[in-house]
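Dear support,

We are seeing what looks like truncated structure output for some complexes. This example has two components. We would appreciate it if you could run it in full and send us the complete token output so we can diff it against ours.
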Amino acid sequence: MSKVIAVISGKGGVGKTTTTANVGLGIARNGRQCVVVDFDIGQRNLDMILGLENRVVYDMVQVMDEEARLDQALIRSKANSNLYFLPASQTKDKSVLESEKIEKLLKDLRKRFEYVILDAPAGIESGFEHTIEFADEAIIVVNPEVSSIRDSDRAIGILDSKSRKGKEGGEVKKHLIINRVDPGMVERGEMLATDDILEILSVDLLGIVPEDKGVIDASNQGHPVVLDDESEAGAAYRRIAKRLCGERIPLVEPQVKKEGLVDKLKGLFR
Amino acid sequence: MFPWLKKKKKKSASVAKDRLKIAIMSDRTGHDLPFMEDLKRDIIEVIKKYKEVSNIEIRKVSHQETDAIAIEVELVEQK
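Here is the complete output from our reference environment:
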């Protein structure tokens, strides 16, 4: 059984594309056939995060318009052979998306992949609605910050009302990822805690990703942080991927780092 | 002089939580009533027979014990 999972956020800039790349690669590392699709038509970001920008020849709009075959457009990840990437079109805008063509594309992808992960555009315009239309599940990415949480609630509302599953009386299964958590700020009461966010949004928690400078470093190199064994954010993404693969992994709340005397001394010489 | 004697400022996370709860509650009204748009259109059609409508607003009003729908119709003043 294959699954179509849309990664959504409402507001932009919360780490949606980074999450798509890391979750997709994490799933592939668990031995599952996975494809990540950039639905952010006209923007194109996922290729950079995955380090595949130089390999893009055809895009998903050309596949939908039958100007290219699916296997010509799919790009295999350098990091893991189970992961494929389908690029967004940079030249066309979101208005080119049509429901029937999307449905056909997703049907073809479902035949080949166990996990089809769609990186939705920011906002809740038509591009967003098309991304969620045929989704079985959705990952909602939020930052522990008021505007992100408010906008994600609106996106969830649209997910429930505009998705095919929602219209047919069912429900798209929803998972929440809280991204960029600063445990020190949470401890000092300066940042919304996990329980607060869950109480407000009432969506099942899939994972908590701590703020981690390694994420930007990883993006710079096109080498997603999930590959970095030292990184805490990478570890969080590895746990998330395992949960999506059906493993029971307990949730880990990011902890404040306790600096020992040795670390403090090291810090002085940095 | 004695900063630790000052009354503690309310933590910003709890302020955020309270503000979000209210903002989201008001955002949600309107989305959870699927017939809203149809209802608006019908009301406008009826009133139009008599007077011009400039704005119509339907919202959920929740008091301690009751949930109700409030309908507000603004009419254009005829000179």
